[in-house]
Design brief:
214 residues; alpha+beta; Jelly Rolls; seven-stranded antiparallel sheet; 2 helices; 37% strand
Length: 214
C-alpha cells in the first residue's frame, strides 16, 4: 500500500468468529460459576455468546468478566437473562474468566460458547497490476494519521472488496530487544560490580587496621 492513501475504518459493522478455543466451567464458594475460555493465543475479543441447554429458564444473573492471568484484570459487569446471553467487551486476551453470580439459584446449564471480534476494513487506493502487502503484528506500532480520514463520508460505501492472501513471516523483519527488558540485566551487573568493589575495599581496610594494631 502507498503511504498516505489509506485509512482505518469500521466500514461494515459485523462480527467474525474467533477460533479455535476451549471452554470449561467450575464452581467456587459463594455460589459463583466460573466459565473459563482459553484461546491458543491472544486475540481481540468483542463478544462472547453463551448457549444454554434449556432455553425456557427464568433467570437474571449478574456477571463479572476478568482477564484470566496473574493480574486478573476486571473488564466489565453485566447481567444475563433469557433475552440477552451476549457479553460485549473489547479486550485482547488469551484467557477469560466469566464469573456468574448465582446467589441461591442452581448454576446455569451452559451448552456452548462462541467468541467473536469486530470485522474492520482498510480503505486504500490500489492501482491495477501492482502487488501490495500488509504488514502487521508489531504491538508497539502506533496508528498513522493521514488526510484521508477527513474525507471518509465523501468516499461512499459501495467500494470493491478484496481479501488478503496467505499470511507469511516478513523476511525483512528483525526483532529488536526491548530496552525495558534489558535494563534489569545491566542493573544486576552493576550491583555485582559494586558489591565486589566494596568487598575489596573492606578487606583492604581490615588489613590496614590489623597492621596498625600490631
Amino acid at each position: 500500500m502507498e503511504a498516505g492513501v489509506y485509512a482505518y475504518r469500521p466500514f461494515k459493522p459485523g462480527l467474525v468468529p474467533v477460533t479455535p478455543f476451549k471452554f470449561h466451567t467450575a464452581e467456587s464458594p459463594g455460589h459463583i460459576s466460573h466459565l473459563y475460555i482459553d484461546f491458543d493465543q491472544a486475540f481481540l475479543i468483542n463478544k462472547v455468546k453463551i448457549t444454554l441447554n434449556d432455553g425456557n429458564l427464568f433467570f437474571d444473573r449478574e456477571v463479572n468478566v476478568f482477564v484470566n492471568n496473574r493480574e486478573h484484570k476486571w473488564l466489565t459487569t453485566m447481567r444475563l437473562n433469557p433475552n440477552d446471553l451476549d457479553i460485549n467487551l473489547s479486550v485482547k486476551a488469551q484467557s477469560l474468566d466469566v464469573q456468574i453470580i448465582n446467589k441461591d439459584n442452581p448454576p446455569l446449564p451452559i451448552q456452548n460458547v462462541e467468541a467473536f471480534q469486530s470485522q474492520n476494513y482498510l480503505i486504500a487506493r490500489l492501482e491495477a497490476n501492482k502487488n501490495y502487502y500488509l504488514v502487521f503484528g508489531d504491538e508497539r506500532a502506533t496508528a498513522p494519521e493521514y488526510d484521508l480520514q477527513y474525507f471518509l463520508e465523501k468516499i461512499g460505501h459501495n467500494l470493491p472488496e478484496i481479501e488478503p492472501g496467505n499470511v507469511a513471516a516478513n523476511p525483512a523483519y528483525k526483532a529488536t530487544p526491548d530496552a525495558g527488558k534489558t535494563k534489569p540485566f545491566w542493573l544486576w551487573i552493576a550491583i555485582c560490580v559494586a558489591v565486589i568493589a566494596l568487598s575489596a575495599l573492606t578487606i583492604n581496610m581490615t588489613r590496614e587496621l590489623s597492621k596498625k594494631g600490631r
